[in-house]
Task: inverse folding
């Protein structure tokens, strides 16, 4: 079964944790100095907030799958619909190791499809395994050119290029 995912950038993490804990009538399942996450069952949602964005608001949406087969199904559906797809494969971001890919809707809203493999102690890492300041997500065409992005946001070569721009700094989970 899939879980809906929403990631929101906030300015004040403590204030936002207080607000969402009251709104959801639940404490976060994970809290870090720059990040918090609620894994709610009713409704079934992975709701994350972080201070790693450019400005407050919704960063991206997505689906978290319970297993690799569901993730493969989402990928096949995106490919069959001829959607541009950024396949990150296994990557680390938002304090988790995941298998993931991204699609972007016609308005430029990033959709993350992922299967979490394990919790990890760092937010993310660049392609050489070093701790990174942010992870990758496709964004609107107004994004800075790829040459200006961090090493974290340089997509790993995985099949043919699809031309999805990625954030210079943003979030990924």
Result:
């Amino acid at each position: 079964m899939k879980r809906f995912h929403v990631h929101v950038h906030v300015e004040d993490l403590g204030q936002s944790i207080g607000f969402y804990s009251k709104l959801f009538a639940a404490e976060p399942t994970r809290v870090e100095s720059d990040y918090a996450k609620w894994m709610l069952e009713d409704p079934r949602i992975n709701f994350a907030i972080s201070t790693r964005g450019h400005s407050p608001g919704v960063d991206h949406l997505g689906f978290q799958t319970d297993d690799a087969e569901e993730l493969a199904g989402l990928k096949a559906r995106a490919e069959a619909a001829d959607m541009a797809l950024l396949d990150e494969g296994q990557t680390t971001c938002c304090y988790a190791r995941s298998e993931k890919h991204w699609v972007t809707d016609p308005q430029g809203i990033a959709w993350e499809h992922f299967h979490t493999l394990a919790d990890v102690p760092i937010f993310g890492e660049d392609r050489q395994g070093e701790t990174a300041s942010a992870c990758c997500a496709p964004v609107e065409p107004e994004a800075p050119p790829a040459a200006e992005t961090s090493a974290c946001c340089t997509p790993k070569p995985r099949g043919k290029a699809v031309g999805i721009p990625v954030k210079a700094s943003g979030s990924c989970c």
